[in-house]
């Protein structure tokens, strides 16, 4: 009797099929066109809540950071984009978080917290927006607020080459090499404990201090060469 081979796709438990298709497409595209590489992805918890705090140089960054991991990650997307037919459906299946034009707002924060409380992961950008010159920008306090209100570990992430490949002033993606390096998880237990009883003025300081600490760790991440990456 003929033997029929059965083709099965390995889809991680926290990825639905639509998300997996996008994950597979972007990972393959980045590898082929940009020769993308991901380093130290094993530092990111494989389950449970986590905040990935990345620098932001290009619209390539969110999928690039997410496709380095074998787990589902939520992305931020402008609320207006969800209104486009088809696009909104894809974003909802990717569990994207709708945010207002400034990237924040009470509803956006609640959606982020809901995902973290449910044990999900999310990508945030401490700088708040894409860099205009390729250099790292100062961190804004918004990510500090999110960190303090959650119990999630924070993994600093740095992307390299995406500004040259497809920065704001680049009209079409260039086949420039890109890479991602994941840092060690950060725990802000002391700051979270202080935030429960401190004054409003001190609370604002804590938010900014947390943001600055994350950015400092992110800046320490260096590109990996010759396919070698050390702890």
Short structural summary:
The protein is of the alpha/beta class. Helix content is about 35%, strand content about 15%.
Overall description:
By secondary structure, the protein is of the alpha/beta class. The chain has a single domain (17-220), classed as Glycerol-3-phosphate (1)-acyltransferase (3-Layer(aba) Sandwich), CATH 3.40.1130.10. The protein has 8 helices and 7 strands, in the order αββαβαβαβαβαβαα. Strands 1-7-6-2-5 form a 5-stranded mixed sheet. Strand 3, helix 3 (87-93) and strand 4 form a beta-alpha-beta unit. Helix 5 packs across helix 8. The chain starts with 16 loop residues before the first helix and ends in an 11-residue tail after the last helix.
Quick tags:
single chain, 231 residues, Glycerol-3-phosphate (1)-acyltransferase, two-stranded parallel sheet, 7 strands, globular
Report strand order across the widest sheet.
Answer: 1-7-6-2-5
Quick check: average pLDDT?
90
CATH top-level class: Alpha Beta
Low-confidence stretches: 1-8
Global geometry: globular
Order of helices and strands: HEEHEHEHEHEHEHH
**What is the count of β-strands?**
7
**How many structural units, i.e. domains?**
1
Number of helices: 8
- Which CATH architecture is right? 3-Layer(aba) Sandwich
CATH homologous superfamily designation: Glycerol-3-phosphate (1)-acyltransferase
Approximately what portion of the residues adopt beta-strand conformation?
Answer: 5-15%
Sheet having the most strands = 5 strands, mixed
Any idea what the radius of gyration is?
Answer: 18 Å
Tell me the helix content.
25-40%
| Terminal-residue CA separation | 53 Å
Class by SSE composition: alpha/beta
Enter the CATH topology name: Glycerol-3-phosphate (1)-acyltransferase
């Amino acid at each position: 009797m003929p033997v029929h081979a059965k083709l099965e796709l390995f889809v991680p438990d926290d990825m639905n099929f639509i998300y997996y298709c996008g994950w597979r497409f972007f990972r393959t595209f980045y590898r082929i066109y940009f020769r993308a590489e991901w380093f130290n992805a094993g530092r990111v918890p494989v389950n449970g809540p986590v905040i990935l705090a990345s620098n932001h140089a290009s619209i390539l960054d969110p999928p690039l950071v997410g496709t380095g991991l074998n787990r589902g990650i939520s992305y931020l997307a402008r609320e207006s984009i969800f209104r486009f037919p088809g696009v909104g459906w894809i974003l909802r299946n990717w569990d994207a978080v709708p945010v207002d034009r400034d990237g924040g707002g009470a509803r956006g924060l609640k959606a982020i917290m809901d995902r973290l409380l449910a044990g999900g992961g999310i990508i945030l950008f401490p700088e708040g927006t894409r860099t205009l010159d390729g250099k790292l920008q100062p961190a804004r306090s918004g990510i500090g607020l999110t960190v303090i209100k959650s119990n999630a570990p924070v993994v600093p992430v740095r992307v390299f080459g995406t500004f040259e490949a497809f920065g704001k002033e680049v009209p079409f993606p260039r086949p420039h090499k890109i890479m991602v390096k994941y840092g060690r998880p950060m725990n802000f237990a002391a700051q979270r404990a202080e935030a429960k009883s401190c004054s409003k003025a001190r609370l604002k300081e804590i938010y900014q201090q947390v943001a600055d600490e994350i950015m400092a760790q992110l800046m320490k991440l260096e590109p990996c060469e010759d396919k070698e990456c050390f702890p």
